Structures are given as C-alpha cells and as structure tokens.
Amino acid sequence: MPAERLKEVVLPILVGILFYLSFSKYDLWFLVFPALFLLPMIRSFAGWFLAGFVTFLLSLLWIRIAMIDYGGVYPPVAYLLIGLLSVSMALYQFSGPYLLWRCLGFRVILLPPAWMVFEILRSHLPYGGFPWILVGEHLVNIPFAKYYLSAGGVYLGTLILWYVSVAPFLLRRVRNLLVYIVLLTLPLPFVRQGAHLPPGEVTVAIVQTNVPEEVKLRRDLFRKELPRLWKLLDEAKKKNPDLILFPESAFPFFAGDLFEEGRKLLEVSRDFPVVVGLVDIRVMGKDIKPYNSVFALKGGEVVDFYDKVRLLPFGEYVPFPFGFVKEIFGAIGGIDYSPGEDLDCLELNGLSIATPVCFEVSYYSLVRKLSSCADLIAVLTNDGWFRDSDGTFQHLRQARVRAVETGRFLVWVNNTGPSAVISPEGKIVAYLPYGREGVLVYTIRSRPGNNPQHPQRSL
Q: Which of 51, 106, 222, 457 could form a disulfide with 12 if both were Cys (CB 3.0 to 4.6 A apart)?
C-alpha cells in the first residue's frame, strides 16, 4: 500500500481505535498519548474526519442499548442515528480543529489550543453541549499532574496532555522548551492539592438498588420491587449512618406520593437523614410540569430539594425544532421534563450537599458552580440505561475528574452500579460493582489521611 494511502486510511483508523480504547471501560487511558502523537501526522481533512468518525462511533456505540432495548427504536434506524451523531461529532471535534490548524500554517505548537477551543465549544453548543469524551479527562490518572485539573479544569488537562504527546515534534528547538516551562508553571499558583472536607466525620450509606431498566419502565413491575427496596433501606439503617443516599428516580412513585406510598422513607428520616431522587409532577395553572428532582428528608418531612437544571436533549426533552420526532419515536413522546432554575446545595444536618443529577456531572462549569456551596458532592444517577457498557464507565470517569477539579469528596450513587466514593484526589476509595444490589458504607473524616486503609464496607 502506498505511503499516502496509509496516511489517508489506515493511520486515521488506527488513531480512532486508539482514542476509543483510551475511553473504553477497559481503562487503557495511556493509549491517548500515541493517538495524540499520530494525529498531527495526518494532513488531510478526510483523514481527520475519518479518525474522528471511528473515535465517536466506537466510543458512543453504547447508546444503542437505550435506543433499541429500552426505546423501541428499529435497530437499523438506531445505528443510522448513531452514525449521524458520530459524523456531526467528527466534524465538530476533529475537522474543526484541523481547519483552524491549517489556517495557522500547520504549526504543531498551535494545535493543542485549537483542539481545546473546540472542546470548549462542544461542551456548550448546541442545546447545552455534549461534553463527553474530552481528552483532559485522562489527566485524572496521572500522579501530581492531575492537580492541574483544579487550576483550569478538564480543558487545561486537554492542553497539557496534548503538549506532552506532541513534545517529540517540538522539543527539537530550545525556544519550544521555554514554552513548555511557561505552560507548566503559569497554572501552578492556582493548583490545589488540599481537600475541602465536611465539618466533622460523616458516614454515608449508598443504596445500590439494582433495578433493571426494563423493570423501571413498567410501573406495575417496578412496584413489585418495593419490598426489596424497603429491605435495603433497613440494611442501611443498621449501619447507623449520618446520611442514606438513594439513586436517581429510585422508587416507583412520584414525590407527591411520599406521604402515602413513600411514608417509610419519611419514617426512617426521623432517625437517619435521607437523600433520594424522585420524579416530581407539579401542576401550575393549566400546565403539568415534571421535574427530575432530588429531595432531602429529615424528621419525617421534606426539608430541601434540588431540580435538575441541565436536561438531556432527546432523553428528557426534545429541543426545537425537532418536536416532530415524538410522532416517530414513541419512547420520547409525552411531556418534556422542565429544567430547574437554581444551582443550590441541599442543606441537611449542618451539611451542604451539591447534588448534580446524572448527565449534569459531565459539565465542568455547572459542577464547579454548584459545588462552591458544598461540603460534599453526591451525584444521583441511573446508568441502567447503558448496562455494563463503555458509557457507564465513561460516566464514572467524569465523576473522578469533577472530584479533583472541585477538591471535594464525591459520592457516586448509581442504580445498577457501579456505585462509589471518590476522594478529592480522584481515587475510588469505596466501590460496589455493577449489577449488585447492596449498601456501600464509607466514613469521610475531616482530617486528610485519617480514613482506614481498607475503607470499603458493603452489604
């Protein structure tokens, strides 16, 4: 095969596969370095587009589970839609930086910021953005370097990983070495290695309910799970925690039914504060507005709540002008969820808790703003939509990044798992695997280094 053909086809496919493997559930994050090193060797629009298409197609193929198995989308249509999404993401994140880089004269030193600009744009536009599969996420795996995330977030992480990967192209000149030194030292005054810890010792009990999505989607089957859910609540009580946490939309009733069907939650909250995700249906005049909400229960009543602010397009609402797709795909028909308006912490027992819901954890700026009032971050999610796929573990990696960026403990409360407690250093210090029901208990202490050497306790 001619050398030009190799660069046009084989090399882009290889780059795409390396990118995918670095973001896959197999945690081969270090493969991002050869992917970033090889990408500048491709000098054609088509080659960059092909590398991006392979990257996103393989990395987002898990979306088919929600579409086909739970959404009832005809498989060929589902794969076509995933292909179209991959095309749009490849044009956005790969072809866009390539065109900008070409305008800059293919100067390798300017490629990393060009890529970062498009990551930032992709994280916000359109429809709130799609901040998934960002290069800087991998920095969370590198000792010391991970703390740069606290200075500039995941986007600074992207810049650093890019410059490290293309160093062989640049360090042939002494002046470029000076650029590297400046790049690494400028953020240092803003790097935080310390942790913002809760005021005192806090023992959390994470309830992993493990209700399959096919059961959750049928209210009659979901209601049959209630005895098992109450049993898990009783098991959590036995550990005498300071806080019991349930995942997103954890029960087969709405928030308005708490005082009837959910009264056991309220009874338990008299002794043990509870944080739980529930769908809340509010009637406002002639309008019916559903919210994806988190409720704080204490003393037998609701003491605080948070409404999910950043909704998932085509999952929780259909953006304009695509309303017609509701007629085509029944799974996304019905009333759209309403977004919350305030990024406020829950106040419970003198503890301020930030509770981003599911997809919200993907947003650096949202979590950073929400966590500014928080002693602890608790993300309530339901990754049962994706089962044991790459998507589930890509989501968890984002949580690790947010923990380092904010310098706070992050409690990952997942329906089907995995559930985890993540330290401010981005380490998973307690873990309950995918597909198991149980209660994960962990004590967060106010002094660093005072947690037990083997902190995981699960029932």
A: 51
Q: What is the pLDDT of residues 97-150, one digit of tens each?
A: 999 999 999 999 999 999 999 999 999 999 999 999 999 999 999 999 999 999
Query: Catalytic one among 358, 360, 405, 437?
Result: 358
Question: Quick check: helix, strand or coil at residue 290?
Answer: strand
What are the structure tokens assigned to 4, written together?
């030009």
What is the structure's pLDDT at 195?
84
* CA separation for the pair 353, 374 (Å, rounded): 5
CATH number assigned to the domain with residue range 202-458, chosen from the 4 options 3.30.43.10, 3.90.550.10, 3.30.70.20, 3.60.110.10: 3.60.110.10
Clarify whether 308 is annotated catalytic: yes
248 has catalytic annotation: yes
The token pair at 265 is 């939650």
Confidence of residue 71 (pLDDT cuts 50, 70, 90): confident
**Crossing angle, helix 45-59 and helix 11-23, to 10 degrees?**
30
Q: Which position among 119, 137, 213, 248 bears the catalytic label?
A: 248
How buried is 401 (Cβ within 10 angstroms: 0-12 exposed, 13-18 middle, 19+ buried)?
Answer: buried
103 catalytic residue (yes or no):
no
Task: Tell me the C-alpha distance between 88 and 11, whole Å.
Answer: 21
Domain ranges for the chain, please list them: 3-190, 202-458
Mutual angle of helices 45-59 and 75-90, in 10-degree steps:
130
Q: How many CB atoms lie within 10 A of CB 386?
A: 22
pLDDT mean across residues, the chain: 92
- Cα-based angle 234, 237, 242 (whole degrees, multiple of 5): 150
The active-site residue out of 225, 308, 405, 437 is 308
Give the residue from 150, 166, 159 showing the smallest Cα distance to 182. 159
CA distance 126 to 190: 30
In the structure encoding, which two tokens stand for residue 231, read together? Answer: 């049993």
